[in-house]
User: What shape does this take?
Amino acid sequence: MDDVTSILQTAACTTRLLKRLGLFGRNILQLPLQSISLGYKQGKTRLVQRLRESTDQLVRCADAQVCIERKWKAEVEVDQAISRLKHLEVVGKVQAGWTGLGWGEAVRFWSKANRKERKEMVVSEVTKMEEEWYKINAILRHILSGCKTALSQGRYRWQHDQVLKKLAETLDVCRHATNRGCSSAAKHHIQFIRQEGSAESTSLRAPARLLSPGKEWSMRVNLGRQLQFPREITITTLHPDIMGHLSAHQ
Assistant: This one.
């Protein structure tokens, strides 16, 4: 007896016994939460179909309620899946790309399917509907409002800041040229005179400018830190991308 006990206490024997008993540790690969949730919804969908299409009339007329989670409703999802399958039958078989008519697998229609095939079609359609939710691209407003930490760290501003940086460099060159009072070189046009004609006097207009030359223009850009309006202009919490203003004494 002592020899048997000593053998059972060895590590190799203990591991073999635990595997046979089905006692596994946490180091075993676990299913992701998304896969578990999808399997749960598929099971509830099969249960709703089994109750609705039961051969027993009492079961069909009982109107039994399936216990589900708070937001996801199995009956509503099954009705929507059946509606989509009927709409697919109205549309018919559609060929995609350059494939010819009749190419590919035959499409099963709702009206021609038997009871078993309808259950499989509904479960497959519910699965497809759930996968469509995972592929929806979230809008920027939802991302920024849902993750304040990422917004404060500037994770979603990299591409925006790269474009703003290039714009700021170009505008800064124009600002320095305006502060120095330099005007862009006028283009010299060659005036051709036809035979037995006279030259017409033409005057070149100076190019229009948004900034008045010869003044001290300042520019602030919303890069690196949050842009603050100067106190001498106004007191506000707005922070535009680029702001140009004159100095206080002007």
Notes: The mean pLDDT is 72. The longest strand covers residues 217-221. Strands lie at 217-221, 242-246.
